[in-house]
Amino acid sequence: MPQFSDAQWNLEIRPIVGWRKGDYEFIINPIVDMGFGQNGDSIFAPCARFARNLGENLAVGLEYYTDLGSLRNFSTFNEQQHNLYAVVDFKIGRFDVDLGVGYGLTPGSDRLMAKMIIGTELTEGISDKSGEANKMLRRPESWMNGFSHL
Q: Domain of 93: which CATH number?
């Protein structure tokens, strides 16, 4: 739809790079959105997250979302979107919940925002003991699905 994208076909490249030390995690998400066709463009929208795990199923942190504009010619700082969110992640049954309240730091940003992401594993209930160690090492990454330029 034109209100969401000028291009009919789009591709998003979303690498995820993270570090964990004890109860802390820092994750960077250098996102590139590419539109194809007559009105296509490539947008750079990097994001980052710093969080502290307070328990097995509870974390609090800060998430930083940006939209710097076209890779060919970044927008001026006042036109760019720079948003900072205070977030909390928790689990309700088999669902991972990510709630956040955000504030736009530039004139090109929305002033006050809220977000909620609810995720679950599609393989819930399938027993695979070999994957248990990997499951324990990763936090639910459902929050990353919310990383996009606003």
A: 2.40.160
Structurally, the chain folds into a number of domains equal to: 1
Mean pLDDT value of segment 77-104: 96
Q: What tokens were used for 28?
A: 């960077």
User: What 3-state class would DSSP assign to 130?
Assistant: helix
- pTM listed for this prediction: 0.74
Closest to 149 measured CA to CA, from 106, 95, 109: 109
- Rounded to a whole number of angstroms, the distance between the first and last alpha carbons of the chain is 16
3-state secondary structure of 44: strand
Query: CA 60 to CA 118: how far, in whole Å?
Result: 16
| Alpha-carbon span 43 to 74, nearest angstrom | 9
